[in-house]
Backbone:
């Protein structure tokens, strides 16, 4: 058996981000696609989160629940990772703030101690002069 190779597929895949984009495109080229099967339509056009179907020979869209669920799970995983990263970042900042607060508290205590010593020395000096 010999396999014949005719040439490359010339029909380009058209991708749409929303049903509205597809609807605008379809309204301009509607007559061209009426004869096409849903299989050919779905292989030629990609609409995020939707599949093309025909109801009473009219082209319609239906939600692609497999993609919807998969995308929802992926978004959930990404969200969890972002939340984990955010929590780690917040915890690091809290630790830095606690360290800085402890340093400031120690400096304040040292200044209070120095202030008490200066008061005592000043009072001793005044007592010596009088």
Residues:
């Amino acid at each position: 058996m010999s396999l014949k190779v005719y040439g490359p597929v010339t029909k380009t895949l058209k991708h749409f981000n929303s049903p509205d984009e597809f609807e605008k495109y379809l309204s301009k080229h509607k007559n061209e696609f009426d004869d096409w099967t849903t299989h050919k339509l779905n292989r030629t056009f990609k609409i995020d989160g939707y599949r093309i179907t025909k109801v009473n020979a009219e082209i319609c869209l239906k939600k692609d629940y497999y993609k919807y669920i998969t995308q929802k799970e992926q978004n959930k995983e990404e969200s969890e990772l972002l939340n984990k990263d955010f929590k780690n970042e917040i915890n690091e900042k809290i630790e830095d703030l606690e360290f800085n607060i402890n340093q400031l508290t120690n400096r304040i205590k040292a200044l209070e101690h120095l202030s008490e010593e200066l008061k005592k020395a000043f009072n001793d000096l005044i007592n010596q002069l009088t």
Notes: Residues 36 and 59 are 10 Å apart (CA to CA). The radius of gyration is 37 Å.
